[in-house]
Amino acid sequence: MKSTLKLKIIIFITFCMVTFVACRDDVSNESPALPSISSNTVSNDVQSDFVFILNNAGTEYGISAKENIKLKGEITIPAIYNAKPVTKIFNFTGQQEITRVVMSDNIREIDAGAFLYCTNLESIIFSNNLEIIDKSAFYTTGLISVTIPASVTTIGYMAFGNCNNLIDIEIFANEVNIGKEAFQACTKLTG
Q1: Which residue of 7, 100, 113, 157 is most buried, as measured by CB atoms within 10 A?
Q2: Rounded to an integer, what distance in angstroms lies between the CA atom of residue 41 and that of residue 129?
């Protein structure tokens, strides 16, 4: 009796493990938006300060600052890399010497914390096709004025939190989901 119960438990556990692995593989195949870093994502050309991350579907890139590189002044987010669109900004966190960002109209999403602690970032030109500004994307930056294009549908939690120099925000979107405390501690904003 005990050996039959042990055998049933072992069979059940094995079934669960096989099912879990099969389900996990199915989910990962259905998620083309997750970043996948391959060995040829780092450029050796003019854009060598950036890392380009190809999505799982192989159809578009995201962009980050290359590790251990200090970017200065104005940066321009390219529209295309390796003949594919650059659609997402991942990580420029702590790049304190960036003063201005200009993004191409291919950018649709700015990831959580993308420009976190870029304290000298005063100006940004958003993509006209931008849809998502994720949580804390510009937390503690030096932004002075921001114009949110009509294409934006989501401004995440604390997206512009603690931007102490922010004095003006224009939002052209008709329907936008603005997260809690999106403009928290922006002491110079008046409304």
Answers
A1: 113
A2: 24
Nearest to 37 by CA among 70, 62, 69: 62
* Residue given tokens 């649709």 in the structure block: 108
Show the tokens assigned to 98.
């960036």
pLDDT in tens, 67-88: 889 999 999 999 999 999 999 9
User: Are the CB atoms for 95 and 118 separated by under 8 Å?
Assistant: yes
Contact 53, 76 (CB under 8 A): no
Are 86 and 111 contacting, i.e. CB atoms less than 8 angstroms apart?
no
In angstroms, the Cα distances linking 75 to 40, 100, 101, 125 are 22, 6, 5, 11
- pLDDT score, position 47: 63
